[in-house]
């Protein structure tokens, strides 16, 4: 794979994705690691990682004007090549219940998990993904050709509708269910353009979001995710898979 962009890469699953990608024997030539404050205190761990790997390029990504700036920054590094893989990882959780949920918390979840992550980001990076898909000698669908991976969650599955009483999380679940619909629509629309779209559930992972109670380490989850990504093909575009490659009902 020539190039990958990971959002929310200053901590948690995003930081570990960048770490493992950069350390891999088949490391991508360019790893674009985006976060809100690459130069601020929250970007420290990512800056330290980038200092060890020239393949990692830090890119600031906050809102729409900065997405356009990010596209230009990425384009200048790619020098006429396309972007192979876009991993929409940045996300925000919410524990609001049916009684406590309000429109502001609902909007905040949708703004980050659906509008920011998917509507704006995918629209702006689509030309670079299309360029990668048209690359010489590339056939079929794969993450090394052109792909959008949306980091989703099992609790956003309408089919499963897991543990509502223990973890109502209305804004989080609803926004991830909407994200899942976007994944399916994009998979159908972009298949013929050579772009794969898949949703991945990383498991319940020890991060700021997953908390210390989670059973999975971030290293373990990300190792699984990267193995799954390497196996994706036209058979698994429009799929919702967990970090072990098992199918999750939409
Ligand atoms: N951890 C789990 O158990 C679990 C389970 C299922 C799914 N997931 C999914 O996995 C993904 C990563 O989660 P994580 O556990 O690594 O979470 P995390 O440790 O809380 O990290 C979240 C990342 O998203 C970024 N982010 C949050 N709100 C943002 C916004 N409005 N604009 C831009 N970036 C924003 C954060 O940046 P800042 O540092 O700037 O806030 C941070 O980089 C999420 O999509 C989440 O839904 C996680």
Give a written overview of the molecule.
A seven-stranded parallel sheet has the order 3-2-1-4-5-6-7, sandwiched between helices. It has helices at residues 12-23, 44-52, 64-78, 103-133, 170-190, 218-231, and strands spanning 3-6, 30-35, 56-60, 85-88, 147-151, 196-201, 240-242. It has six helices and seven strands. Helix 4 (103-133) runs parallel beside helix 5 (170-190). The protein starts with a strand and ends in an 8-residue tail after the last strand. The chain has a single domain (3-242), classed as NAD(P)-binding Rossmann-like Domain (Rossmann fold). It has 250 residues and is α/β, with parallel strands linked by helices. 41% of the residues lie in helices and 13% in strands. The longest helix has 31 residues, at 103-133. Strand 6 (196-201), helix 6 and strand 7 (240-242) form a beta-alpha-beta unit. NADP nicotinamide-adenine-dinucleotide phosphate binds at residues 8, 10-14, 35-36, 42, 89-92, 112, 116, 151, 153, 201-202, 204-205, 207-210, 214.
What is the H/E order?
EHEHEHEHEHEHE
Number of helices: 6
Radius of gyration: 17 Å
Task: Summarize the biggest pleated sheet.
Answer: 7 strands, parallel
What ranges have pLDDT less than 50 throughout 5 or more consecutive residues? none
CATH homology group: NAD(P)-binding Rossmann-like Domain
Total number of distinct structural domains: 1
Helix fraction? 40-55%
Shape: globular
Q: Overall pLDDT, averaged? A: 96
Quaternary assembly: single chain
Topology, number of strands: 7
Specify the CATH class. Alpha Beta
Structural class: alpha/beta
Bound molecules: NADP nicotinamide-adenine-dinucleotide phosphate
């Amino acid at each position: 794979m020539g190039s990958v962009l990971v959002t929310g890469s200053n901590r948690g699953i995003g930081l570990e994705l960048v770490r493992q990608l950069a350390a891999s024997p088949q490391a991508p030539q360019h790893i674009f690691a985006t976060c809100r404050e690459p130069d601020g205190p929250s970007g420290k761990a990512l800056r330290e990682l980038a200092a060890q790997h020239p393949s990692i390029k830090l890119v600031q990504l906050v809102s729409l004007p900065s997405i356009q700036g990010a596209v230009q920054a990425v384009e200048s590094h790619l020098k006429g090549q396309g972007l192979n893989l876009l991993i929409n990882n940045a996300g925000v959780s919410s524990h609001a219940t049916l009684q406590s949920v309000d429109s502001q918390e609902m909007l905040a979840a949708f703004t980050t998990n659906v509008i920011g992550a998917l509507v704006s980001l995918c629209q702006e990076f689509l030309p670079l993904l299309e360029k990668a898909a048209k690359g010489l000698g590339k056939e079929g669908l794969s993450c090394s050709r052109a792909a959008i991976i949306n980091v989703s969650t099992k609790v956003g599955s309408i089919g499963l509708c897991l543990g509502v009483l223990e973890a109502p999380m209305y804004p989080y679940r609803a926004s991830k269910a909407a994200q899942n619909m976007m994944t399916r629509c994009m998979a159908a629309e972009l298949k013929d353009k050579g772009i794969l779209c898949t949703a991945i559930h990383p498991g319940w992972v020890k991060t700021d979001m997953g908390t210390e109670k989670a059973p999975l380490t971030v290293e373990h989850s990300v190792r699984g995710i990267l193995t799954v990504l390497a196996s994706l093909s036209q058979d698994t575009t429009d799929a919702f898979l967990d970090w072990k490659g098992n199918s999750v009902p939409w």
